[in-house]
Amino acid sequence: MTKHWSLVCSNCSAESDAEGLPTVCPDCGMPWLVRYDTKPKPGVKDLMLERPFNMWRYREWMPISEGEEPVTLGEGCTPLLPLPNLGRELGMERLWIKDESTNPTGSFKARGMSAAVTLSKAGNAQAFTVPTAGNAGVAMSAYAGCAGIPINVWAPKTTPPRILEQMQMFGANLRTLDGHIGDCGKAARAYADEHGAFDVSTLREPYRIEGKKTLGLEIAEQMGWKMPDAIIYPTGGGTGLIGMWIAFRDLIEAGWVSGKAPRLYTVQSTGCAPVVKAFEEGSEKTEVWQDPWTVAFGLRVPGPLGGFIVLRAIRETGGSAEAVSDETLEADAHRIAKLEGVDACPEGGATLAALEKLLAKGEISRDESVVLFNTGAGWLYRS
Predict the structure, then answer these.
(1) Which of 46, 135, 175, 310 gives 238 a disulfide partner, CB atoms 3.0 to 4.6 angstroms apart?
(2) Residue 318 near residue 249 (C-beta atoms within 8 A)
(3) Distance CA 258, CA 226 (A)
(4) Around 354, how many Cα atoms within 13 Å sit in the side-chain half-sphere?
(5) In what order do the strands lie in the sheet with 32-36?
(6) Burial of 90: CB neighbours in 10 Å, binned 0-12, 13-18, 19+
């Protein structure tokens, strides 16, 4: 079946077709990005309204051929909720949170894994392996099970017990080890090399970004095909932020929206902040963070492969990067829950903590429209 997309390297601009099971650019080892032959016309909006309410309603924006069926559990189309109580506290009238906890498996990871498993199954993957800080392993276990493909998941022993239980419930062969997700990544790649399993690590295959891209498409649609002034996003591997950056750029080029893309702000924990450090130092790439630790396990990514793309995205849009303490992000997760009824994960709390810092610095104005992100369900972190 003819594909309407190809691949281009995010670093050296090498090009490739999209056949089989692409991993990273063979020339430089950096991530592939998907490039489409054409951009969808605005009239496609009418077609979307007739489709099921999940992320695959945006199929013209995604790597799926006509007539193909995705591996889906109904992911996407999560609520964009106003935050009136927090808004009053902060003096803001246009403050929202994108609540990804309502996804299947309880986090935004469902989007990327639906896309990755769909394309990997089409590419004839016989087995999967993936390292995880938590939620990615849960999502990948569920979608691999749905596709009928076995999966080995590598997770730190410090991962919340409930998250580990979820992976096993969905049928994963779970391996835990001492260390962080970087150590798990090495183990997963070694397993893939030895056993022929397909490694679905962050940005080591090109399609998780395409699933996460729907975050930006949804925000634009939910705001009446307009865009907010700023988005604050908790960043570990950075796939979601990169996906939104691509989505907003493509929407503008296709004429679906007008105006500028939102300023993208990344937030990390002070215990693991490689992107923040690189941004503050004016560097174009991240360095591995030594001795990473944070209770926000999704932010505990010491050496993100796509760190240089995250830096490119926040600089191009006029955003910045902030680090917040674990104490503050936990307190703000509870604050979101108490004041707005959203069971925010620690990473979600980090976005509120970053907003207050950005307001104090004058980088965000109180009269601007701002979207925070809750990337997962808080209950998954509680034993």
Answers:
(1) 310
(2) no
(3) 7
(4) 30
(5) 15-16, 5-9, 32-36
(6) middle
Query: What's residue 42's pLDDT?
Result: 86
> DSSP string spanning 30-64?
PBEEEEESSPPPTTHHHHHTTS-SSGGGGGGGSS-
Alpha helices in the chain (DSSP H): 44-48, 84-90, 109-122, 135-147, 161-169, 181-195, 208-222, 239-254, 274-281, 307-316, 326-340, 346-361
CA atoms of 78 and 65, how far apart (whole Å):
24
Which has the closest alpha carbon to 175: 228, 224, 137? 137
Q: pLDDT below 50 — which residues of the chain? A: none
Give the domains, in start order, of the chain with CATH numbers.
80-107+209-381 (3.40.50.1100), 109-199 (3.40.50.1100)
State the Cα–Cα distance between residues 16 and 25, nearest whole angstrom: 9
When computed from its CA atoms, the radius of gyration of the chain, rounded to whole angstroms, is 19
d(CA 12, CA 122): 27
Q: Do residues 373 and 298 make contact, with C-beta atoms less than 8 angstroms apart?
A: no
185-222 b/e (C-beta count within 10 Å ≥ 16 → b): bebbbebbeeeebbbbbbbbbbbbbbbbbbbbbbbbbb
From 272, 275, 278, select the one nearest 293 (Cα to Cα).
272
- What is the layout of strands, in order, in the sheet containing 128-131? 173-177, 151-156, 128-131, 198-199
Q: What is the structure's pLDDT at 1? A: 60
Closest CA to 304 of 3, 10, 2, 13: 10
Specify the pTM.
0.95
DSSP label at 263? E
> Cβ-count burial of 53 within 10 angstroms (0-12 exposed, 13-18 middle, 19+ buried)?
exposed
* pLDDT tens digit sequence for 233-248: 999 999 999 999 999 9
Helix (H, G, I), strand (E, B) or coil at 160: coil
Q: What pLDDT shows up at residue 242?
A: 98
Q: Which residues pair with 370 in a beta bridge?
A: 95, 230
Which residues are within 8 A (CB) of 65 and not within 5 positions of it... i.e. 6 or more apart?
A: 1, 2, 3, 4
CB atoms within 10 A of CB 366: 13
Nearest to 75 by CA among 52, 50, 44: 52
